[in-house]
UniProtKB/TrEMBL annotation:
Highest taxon listed in the record's lineage: Bacteria
Disordered, as annotated region: 1-23
Keyword Membrane: yes
Keyword field: Cell membrane, Membrane, Transmembrane, Transmembrane helix, Transport
PANTHER family according to UniProt: INNER MEMBRANE TRANSPORT PERMEASE YADH-RELATED, TRANSPORT PERMEASE PROTEIN
Protein name: Transport permease protein
Species per Swiss-Prot/TrEMBL record: Altererythrobacter xiamenensis
GO cellular component: ATP-binding cassette (ABC) transporter complex
Location(s) in or outside the cell: Cell inner membrane; Membrane
Length: 304
């Protein structure tokens, strides 16, 4: 019998397929960088595209209803100025060496900024939990820090827009003079105040299970601290006990420091005291940021 020649790959498809599978398995085993092990992240470092997408999503959300989120607060704040100017600003009354309307205006601007920063960040996660769309924020490849940064950046953006709208309206109002004496104070205290309320709003959004919880924090925490922070008065007119309470209110330092940037005077004290207050707000925001990051990391009230 004649010797048979070995089968060629063309005449033995099964052998050819087996060789291809073995070659592919060898490539997968030998090229771990192309095919990372299960559970290892594919995106390393900061997910810039995801972070930017989240930021744009949050900004577009409040810009779609800009009449309510930007111009509405500006009109409300302007009404505060009109009412208190008429009630308390008659007879050429001056506070800290400036007309009463010019004294009140900076405090109202930064108060509007803080309240709207809180409103924006306190809605982000809460709406997702109630509507069942929280998975849209948790499913993308975003770390807790990136999720937190995107929400906070959008809230601060809304605060800056509201502050700009309120400032323009007040600058055009008769009797109000808005001249910047210390630009660094305007920028620093405006950002620190907006960030502080953005952080408070974010933790409120995590904790809340319904809109009533969010409204409770707004009505019983944010509103009283805002109105009793020296926006319409200097704390030297208060009794010593109430002065001590006011100095324990972080809103007081934001409003007084922001006002210092416009009129060059503050009931915090001299420039050194204003700088110390600004650093204190930075430390408070850092502590709040670390705490809220740990809460997000744990998944409390979100992934349960």
């Amino acid at each position: 019998m004649a010797d048979q020649a070995p089968a060629s790959p063309e005449t033995n498809p099964g052998s050819n397929q087996g060789s291809a599978d073995a070659s592919l398995n060898g490539k997968i085993a030998g090229e771990g960088s192309r095919f990372p092990a299960r559970g290892e992240p594919i995106i390393t470092g900061i997910n810039r595209i995801g972070l930017w997408s989240l930021y744009i999503k949050e900004v577009r959300r409040f810009l779609k209803v800009h009449t309510q989120t930007i111009w509405g607060p500006a009109v409300t704040t302007l009404l505060f100025l009109i009412i208190f100017s008429v009630a308390l600003g008659r007879g050429g009354r001056e506070v800290l060496g400036v007309p009463f309307a010019s004294f009140v205006a900076p405090g109202l601007i930064v108060m509007g900024m803080m309240q709207n920063a809180f409103a924006n960040s306190s809605f982000s996660l809460l709406s997702g939990k109630i509507q069942g769309t929280i998975i849209d924020l948790l499913m993308p490849p975003l770390s807790e820090g990136e999720l937190m940064s995107g929400i906070l950046a959008a809230a601060v953006t809304r605060a800056v827009m509201v502050g700009g709208a309120v400032g323009i309206a007040m600058a055009l109002w008769p009797g109000v003079t808005l001249t910047i004496e210390h630009l660094w104070a305007v920028v620093w205290f405006g950002l620190m105040g907006s960030l502080m309320l953005s952080l408070l709003g974010l933790v409120t959004s995590i904790w809340s299970e319904k809109f009533d919880h969010n409204a409770a924090i707004t009505n019983f925490v944010v509103a009283p601290l805002s109105l009793l922070s020296g926006t319409f008065y200097v704390i030297d007119n208060l009794a010593p006990a109430f002065q001590a309470i006011s100095r324990a209110n972080p809103f007081f330092y934001v409003i007084s420091g922001f006002r210092y940037g416009f009129i060059g005077q503050s009931d915090i004290g001299d420039e050194r005291a204003v700088v110390i207050a600004g650093l204190g707000l930075l430390a408070l925001n850092l502590v709040m940021g670390v705490i809220i990051y740990r809460i997000l990391k744990s998944g409390w009230k979100i992934k349960d």
